[in-house]
Amino acid sequence: MRTVQLKNTNIPSIALGTWSWGTGANGGDAVFGNALMSEDLKPIFDAAMDAGLNLWDTAAVYGMGASEAILATFIQGRDDVLISTKFTPRIEQSDHALEESIGESLQRLGTEHADIYWIHNPKDVQRWTRQLVPLMKSGKIKHAGVSNHNLDEIKLAADILAQEGLQLSAVQNHYSLLYRASEEAGIIEYCNANDLIFFSYMVLEQGALTGKYNAQNLFKEGTRRGDAFHKEVFVKIEDLLELLREIGSRHQVNPAEIAIAWAIAKGTVPIIGVTKLSHVASAVSAIDVRLTNNEIEELERAAKSTNVEIRGSWENNMI
C-alpha cells in the first residue's frame, strides 16, 4: 500500500468518504438517493481496514451528524483508524460555534481528537481560522485543513496559524477530470511547494465517471447528483467515458480506477465515497495503476473537449 506523509503521520494514498452514509439533511438519501445504515456499511468498513485504507473522511453536516454517528459504531476500541471531519461556518453562528461543533463531533465519534479537522468553507477566514489555535494546542486537532478555499484564502489561513507557531497541513477541494479549477488557479502547485497535502473530492463526480452511468442509465431523479448530471451532460461526456474504458482495458481495470489513478498521478490524495465492497476493491486497484504521460494528456484533452464543468452550489470560483 503506497502511503503519503502528512507532516508526522503516514496516510494511505486514498482516503475514504462517508458523505453518502446515513440519511437526513445533506445525507445519502438527499444527495445520492440511498439510505445506508450501520448494518449495510460495516462490511465495507471492515474490508477497507483490512486493505490498509484507514483514513475516513466525514463532516458534522453529512446527514447532520448521521455519518459521524455511523462511523463511530465501527471505530470503538480501535487505535488504527484516522478520522477526518469538518466544521461548516455559517454567517449567523456565535464565536463559540467551532469549539462547540468539534466537541459535538468528537462526542458522536467517541474519540478525543480529530486527526484532520477542516474548516469546510471560506466564510470569514480570519474569524474561524483563529478558532483552530487553542484546539490545536490542546491536542484536540492533530492536523488542520481548509476546504473549498481559493489560493488567497489558503495563504491567509496558513499565515494566521504560522503566527501562532502552527501549521496548516492540508487543502480539500473539488478536483476531477471535469473540474480542474484548483490546478488552474495554482492551488495544487502552492500545496506542493509548501508541504501541504491536497485532498481531491468528487474525483468520480459522484459516480458519473465510473462508467456505470450514461444517457440511457441515469442517476435517480430528484437527487442532487441527478440534477447535476442529467441526460444532456452524459451525452457530452460520452467520448470521455469511452476513453476511460479504453485506458482501463489497457491496465486491466475499470474506468473508475483510471479516473482515480489520474488524480493520484496529479499529486493529490483522492477521497472516494464507499457504499459497496466493490468501491473498496476499486480504490485498492487504482493505487497500483501507473498511467503514462501520454495517457494523462489523452484524458485531459478528452475532458476539456466535453465543455462540461460541474461546480457545486456551495463552491466559489477558484480563479
Question: How is this structure best described in words?
Answer:
The protein is an alpha/beta fold. It has one domain (3-305): TIM Barrel, CATH 3.20.20.100. Helix content is 43%, strand content 16%. The chain is built from 14 helices and ten strands. It has helices at 28-31, 38-50, 66-75, 97-109, 125-138, 151-162, 181-184, 187-193, 224-228, 231-236, 238-251, 255-265, 277-287, 293-305; strands spanning 3-6, 9-12, 15-17, 55-57, 82-87, 114-119, 141-147, 168-174, 197-201, 269-273. The strands form two sheets. An eight-stranded parallel beta barrel has the order 3-4-5-6-7-8-9-10, surrounded by five helices. α2 (38-50) packs parallel to α13 (277-287) and α5 (125-138) crosses α6. The chain starts with a strand and ends in a 14-residue tail after the last helix.
